[in-house]
Amino acid sequence: METNFLDKLLADARPLAFKGQVANYIPLLGLADPQKLGLCVAEPDGALISSGDWQERFSIQSISKILVFTLSLIDSGFDKVLEKVSIESTDDAFNSIVNLETKNNHRPLNPLINAGAIVCLTLIDGKNMHEKFTRVLEFTRLLARNSSIEVDEDIYLSEKATAARNRALTYYMLSTGAIEGDVEAILDAYFRICSMMVTCADLARIALVYAQGGAGFFPKEIARTVKAAMCVCGMYDESGQVAVEVGLPTKSGVGGGLLSVAPNRFGIGIYGPALTDKGSSVAGLEVLKKLSKELDLSIF
Ligand code: GLN
Q1: Which of 99, 123, 151, 172 has its Cα between 20 and 30 A from that of 48?
Q2: Domains of the chain by range and CATH?
Q3: What is the pLDDT of residues 24-51, one digit of tens each?
Q4: How far is CA 48 from CA 43, 52, 75, 111, in A?
Q5: Which residues line ligand 1 (CB under 6 A)?
């Protein structure tokens, strides 16, 4: 794959950023430059092909949910995790509460919405929430092959100070028995995980692990399950459209990142902080659609 090809994809998609807006419900995310756009593709031998603002650092946000889900399966096993969370799509936003009361016997519908990720986080090994957070950080560094990934303290504090919705849904889950323990400690770990700073290269390398069936880091069965979940619900209430238009397991984050897996082929990391109303990168999705089309990557 040529860098020129990626440069052209970015140049064509960059103008679309005006259609979106940077997230500002977490105040510090509102400072991002909406015009930024970067792309990194990790090839099977680990070589990276990069373009645009691929070296820009941004918070991983909900892309971390695939890592949390993976670790919960590794540490607690399928039966225990799937007893607490199912893998069904929702037609609601990532931070919706309504289904916790009305559907699925109080179990979050899937591990890639906030409620489901918070449940999975409690199922990761660790004597306390700080140890569980550290396990996620170390796992992220391992898969990204980047030991310098750190939490941005300011973004973490910015989310912590404004997280009424996440507090509401987590306390709600405590009341129904969906989770146990100290809600503030659980949320603290969740906010720290969402504030891990990554680049497109980190996301591409993590995606390559899933593209290669776990690449020896975890069993193929877990990689397959996480990819299936990404197809069904990785893009929340636009997962269906992304399945049709991109056709790859993909996860978005409100920091502007997109992680996409081309099984047995590539790991893809994209950054573009202007978001659709569903919370995913507008220009980034355009890049992904074109990349998938040009290289015939759709798994369907
Ligand atoms: N930290 C964000 C939140 O909980 C993550 C949301 C996202 O990236 N979709 O609201």
Answers
A1: 151
A2: 3-58+198-295 (3.40.710.10), 62-194 (3.40.710.10)
A3: 999 999 999 999 999 999 999 989 999 9
A4: 6, 13, 31, 29
A5: 61-62, 94-95, 114, 159, 166, 194, 253-254, 279
Residues annotated as catalytic are 62, 65, 190, 236, 254
Q: Which range is least confidently modeled, 34-48, 83-97, 158-172, 250-264?
A: 83-97
Given ligand 1 and candidates 28, 159, 271, 280, which is best to mutate, with the most ligand atoms within 8 Å of its CB?
A: 159
How far is residue 115's CA from residue 56's CA, in Å, rounded to a whole number? 29
Whole-model pTM? 0.97
What number is the average pLDDT over the span 264-291? 96
For residue 94, the ligand 1 atom closest to its alpha carbon is 9
